[in-house]
Design a protein that fits this description.
The structure is a homotetramer. By secondary structure, the first copy, chain A, is an alpha+beta fold. Chain A is about 35% helix and about 30% strand. The first copy, chain A, is built from three helices and six strands; from the N terminus they run H-E-H-E-H-E-E-E-E. In chain A, strand 5 and strand 6 form a beta hairpin. The relative contact order of chain A is 0.20.
Chain lengths: ~120, ~120, ~120, ~120
């Protein structure tokens, strides 16, 4: 096989499709990388920052906003003073851009579905 | 907000776009969930099976093929007899389907990029 | 520094202390490796097997018993049909042995502490 | 069963043994939580800080020092500009204390063993 550049892998996608693909990858990545991390109300900011910086490294990601639910962290912490990060605690938006196409991928917890759903914002 | 079904979140995507999105999520998810797992040539099959079964649970995923690179696992194992799973060891294809649209998402290691690249197969 | 064998690192521990140390490492390892994995009642057995086989690779581990709480998996699964593995779902015992000293390390969820506690069984 | 305090679980261990146990748990935990995280030379400090703060939450941990190997991160980054954190990149010491007993648990990469070894410092 000839040597390929990164771009060569994506000739079969439109710019919008690739921005959607990269948004999905990065959201799936951060969920499964960071769920389980020990966290308390006091360390939530540091963890938000590390999640943000690590995901900004991923292809096409140009902006990331991470909010961990401190009320839920507090409620789950019990007498040990901390808990493990769960998907229910995540409110995250990340923006991916391919040329002129910009996509915002979100995760938020849907109580009805009992599920941290990932979707594309209009 | 009204109670939403899962489908309501995806009205702004075509079936193809959603299949691409779900493929990206599931590939990002499995990479970051399983990288780091202790693995040897002898346990590679069991880990392949667990990866496959867990990813088949994800939305829209209808087929998963997982091959871990036993030569690389062997080479990395050293005197301890096992190693930690890395992205370089992964060859995975997963198929997502939304109505009539089917998409195959792949990961394979690109030596030139020094990177386990995720892409959509034609 | 001279070339060291694995054993050389542990000259400052008794056999019992090292068995305790290795039990702690392996229990911490499996918790943080596998929490977050997609799981359903149907895939629980496959995941139990993969956890068991991967942890048996770790130094000094000679036996592992893994039970995932299917009632809790069922309860958390909701309309999506699966959930993410949490520490609350884990009942695990692992046995480490250094020469004649054998230690059993456990994890089980303590409702009072709201915490999946790791301890050494008598 | 009667309601137990955290301390009740550890009546069968000396203070030194429990400090060793907690050191093992926390080192195993951080390895398997953070290996796989996207990291570059520029984000290494943020990740070091998040690892440190999260592990300080764990029982008995009173001090943590985290150094990620920037030379190795640089070397592995390739044209994509970042890489995934591996065990080879970790130099970490954590101190656990139970009453008067203090233990320092370390991880560092041993080239001869091809293995990121965890041990107790004298």
């Amino acid at each position: 096989m000839d040597i390929m550049n990164e771009e060569d892998y994506f000739k079969n996608l439109t710019d919008r499709e690739r921005a959607i693909f990269e948004g999905g990858i990065s959201m799936g990545a951060l969920f499964h990388q960071f769920v389980g991390t020990p966290v308390s109300v006091d360390t939530a900011s540091s963890l938000e920052e590390a999640i943000k910086k690590s995901i900004l490294l991923q292809p096409a990601v140009i902006d990331v906003s991470v909010k961990l639910n401190r009320n839920l962290i507090e409620k789950c912490s019990g007498v040990m003073g901390y808990t493990s990060l769960t998907g229910e605690m995540l409110s995250i938006k990340l923006t991916t851009k391919i040329k002129e196409k910009t996509i915002t991928t979100c995760i938020s917890y849907d109580e009805n579905l009992q599920y941290p759903i990932m979707y594309i914002e209009d």
